[in-house]
TrEMBL record:
Gene3D superfamilies per the UniProt record, alphabetical: 1.20.5.110
Residue span(s) of domain BAP29/BAP31 transmembrane: 1-135
Keyword Protein transport among UniProt keywords: yes
Positions of the Bap31/Bap29 cytoplasmic coiled-coil domain: 180-238
Organism listed in the record: Oryzias latipes
Protein name: Endoplasmic reticulum transmembrane protein
Transmembrane annotation, as ranges: 7-27, 47-67, 102-120
Biological role: May play a role in anterograde transport of membrane proteins from the endoplasmic reticulum to the Golgi.
A single GO cellular-component term on record: endoplasmic reticulum membrane
Topology versus the membrane: Multi-pass membrane protein
Domain of life: Eukaryota
Length: 238
């Protein structure tokens, strides 16, 4: 194997190892994103697109060269001398085998290089989506807590308003009761005054009745005396 194909084979093995490491299930996408944020990767990110395009061009050129070699040794017709010489026949098949091997190595190298690029992009996108999802979940949790707090505050406010209304209604009721009490007190006072006045008037009437009774007794007594005097005078005349 020549130097260039040895380098391509080593590059293919490195790609397989990197892809296997990137596919490890116990390393999360956010951990990979934190690894990709190291200073060395940040420095390499400035040249990543150029390196990627350069490697794609080199691998495609090697792949096309391998295709050419395969077609060259596949379509080449061996002469009668080559058939009579087994070493030449084996040499041609060995070159065809090497060309096919180089074709597979370069082809898989191009394919895995594209897969690795896409895999790294998807890991970064997944990590960003996970971070966004975590932030949204945290915001949703905070929003739920805030909503619950507002609901509790709203319930307390409603309860306070209801208590305020009840207190207001009670205050109005007490005010009405006080008004009724004042009214009843006034009526009671008026009734008391009227009753007292009635008692006074009754006492006055009673006194007047007693006075009239005494006056009647006195007049009756005087009338009786006058009647007796008149009867005595009539008897004397007879």
């Amino acid at each position: 194997m020549t130097l260039q194909w040895t380098a391509v084979a080593l590059f293919l093995y490195a790609e397989i190892g990197v892809i296997l490491i990137l596919c490890l299930p116990f390393i999360s996408a956010r951990r990979w994103q934190s690894i990709f944020k190291f200073r060395i990767w940040s420095w390499m990110a400035n040249f990543w697109n150029k390196v990627f395009l350069t490697m794609i061009i080199i691998l495609i050129i090697l792949f096309l060269d391998a295709v050419r070699e395969v077609r060259k040794y596949s379509s080449k017709d061996l002469g009668v001398g080559a058939k009579l010489q087994p070493n030449m026949f084996d040499h041609m098949h060995m070159k065809l085998f090497r060309a096919q091997r180089n074709l597979y190595i370069s082809g898989f190298s191009v394919f895995l290089w594209l897969v690795m690029k896409r895999l790294i992009t998807l890991i970064n996108q997944l990590a960003s989506a996970s971070a966004t999802t975590a932030a949204l979940q945290e915001q949703a949790a905070n929003a739920n807590q805030t909503a619950e707090k507002y609901m509790k505050d709203n319930e307390l406010l409603k309860q306070t308003l209801m208590d305020g209304k009840a207190d207001k209604a009670t205050e109005k009721g007490m005010e009405l009761l006080r008004t009724e009490m004042e009214k009843l007190k006034k009526e009671l006072k008026t009734s008391g005054d009227a009753l007292e006045k009635s008692h006074k008037e009754a006492d006055a009437v009673k006194k007047q009745v007693d006075g009239l009774a005494r006056e009647y007794d006195r007049l009756l007594k005087e009338h009786q005396e006058l009647q007796n005097l008149q009867d005595n005078g009539n008897k004397k005349e007879d």
